Amino acid sequence: AQSVTQLGSHVSVSEGALVLLRCNYSSSVPPYLFWYVQYPNQGLQLLLKYTSAATLVKGINDFEAEFKKSETSFHLTKPSAHMSDAAEYFCAVSARSGGGADGLTFGKGTHLIIQP
Amino acid sequence: DAGVIQSPRHEVTEMGQEVTLRCKPISGHNSLFWYRQTMMRGLELLIYFNNNVPIDDSGMPEDRFSAKMPNASFSTLKIQPSEPRDSAVYFCASSLWESENTEAFFGQGTRLTVV
After folding, report:
1. Do A51 and B102 touch (CB under 8 A)?
2. How many CB atoms lie within 10 A of CB A16?
3. By the 8 A CB rule, do B23 and B88 touch?
4. Which of A43, A103, A108 sits opposite B45 (nearest CB)?
């Protein structure tokens, strides 16, 4: 069984400031971890993913995340926030089954607010 | 590619009516997923298919919900009869499972309102 906990349903940062969105996971098998972004009335778009290669993963729009097994964490960061980053962010976990892709288990989401 | 295509984008129906949501996955993808998003429960996996075969439907809330994938390019999620608590955004996603490189691509969603 897998689960994801996102700390903070809302995070507010100033434009240009560091963005840090927290995600902790629980998995009985080595996990695959993902961050998705959702803009209003849109579907989900993949930001980045961890699939057991490098622990520091770089994604689109200067986002990155670091897999820390000892802390069971996969926090998302961006050095400098932009107004266009305002959106809902979801951390997700999956486990590869023998027969193919597995479904994603999502966290509750974090609403990122960018202050001008 | 046009991406995952869902229809309709919006659906308003009366309680007790049958509702059918449709999804066309990305061509060549072999896995398809149905998710439901609500304020209270967030994003939940309802069911997924690999190579058109249902693998796990443990997320389907009740027998009123059913999903089919008659071929690799089409899937439906049906609710019969619908209830107000079924109101949510329903997402379809598809992926190509191959080795370590897997990514689920999401459709725009269908916003269902049951009155």
Report:
1. yes
2. 12
3. no
4. A103
pLDDT digits (tens, 9 = 90+) for A91-115: 998 876 533 467 888 999 999 999 9
* Tokens at A105, concatenated: 């288990």
pLDDT digits (tens, 9 = 90+) for B70-112: 999 999 999 999 999 999 999 999 988 765 566 889 999 999 9
Amino acid present at B94: S
Chain A contact set for B44 (CB, 8 A): 106
* DSSP H/E element including A33: strand A32-38
> Read out DSSP for B43-59?
EEEEEEEETTEEEE-TT
Residues of chain A contacting residue B100, judged by C-beta atoms under 8 Å apart: 51-53
User: A46, B103: Cβ pair inside 8 Å?
Assistant: yes
Task: Provide, for chain B, the percentages of residues in helix, strand and coil under a 3-state DSSP scheme, each rounded to the nearest 5.
Answer: 5, 55, 45
Please state, in angstroms and rounded to a whole number, the distance separating the CA atoms of residues B2 and B104. Answer: 15
Q: CB-based contacts of A110: which residues, under 8 Å, 6+ apart? A: A6, A8, A9, A10, A11, A21, A22, A88, A89, A90
